[in-house]
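Quick one: structure for this chain?
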Amino acid sequence: MPVASAPAVQISTATETEINEHAPTSLTVFRFADNPRILVLDFASLHEQGKMLNRVAAFVEKAGLPHDRVLTDGELDAAIRAQGDTVETFYLGHDYAAASLARFFALADSEQIMLDPAEQWLRALLQQEGWFASGVAAGLISLPAAGSDPRITASARAAILRHELSHGEFFSNPEYAEYVYKFWLTELTEDERGAVRDFLAKEGYDARVEELMFNEMQAYLMFTRDPTFFTPDMAAMTHERLATLQARFLAGMPAGWLRNVLASYQSAALAR
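Got it. Here's what it folds into:
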């Protein structure tokens, strides 16, 4: 008797505003209206988010952890505790390229790592979307519901979403990713790049992964405007220097929805 295939994951197309205003009571999957190659997982709780994505986070970008193999349950629990975190606090939002997710699941299979049901559900979603094929340019991001934790206020949720969407654009738009890389090399000084690395290392990112550094640079310096998460002094930078970098970034940025976001910030600043 043939085995029945898993039911298709339902995905709704939504704008940034619609996603931000959504109040999930269970996991909801959105396709971002301005860039359909970005999928958004909207979780009702940080626990639910962590169970699905913390092992991927450890594999892709967390400092002090291996990026060439997948952690077992025991190793992941120990790594989370060693950093003084819990399943809920390990990450507030997640972002991954299709290629990184494909590599994670391929290694988990080759190493015979027992994955949680939530991780298996994620695998099914990615298979449904065709993300395990070679050369797919796409990005998966996540965020938790407002009120799911005292830190996740309405404004914090909006900031997390904007930050993670910029990562989604980086992963799904090779032209934008190349622009960010060139900007990192040519517009920031060596000292500024070092200061950004130091800031990101303090946040738990693996500063040895260069692409991670310039991807986070664009997300924090250009699109994270909530002082709860980033202020220029965190990267040893003045407000004036950051404003100069933001203006230069906008000037050469590829056309599209994310450029419009940065332009709106600049217009609002000029109007004040």
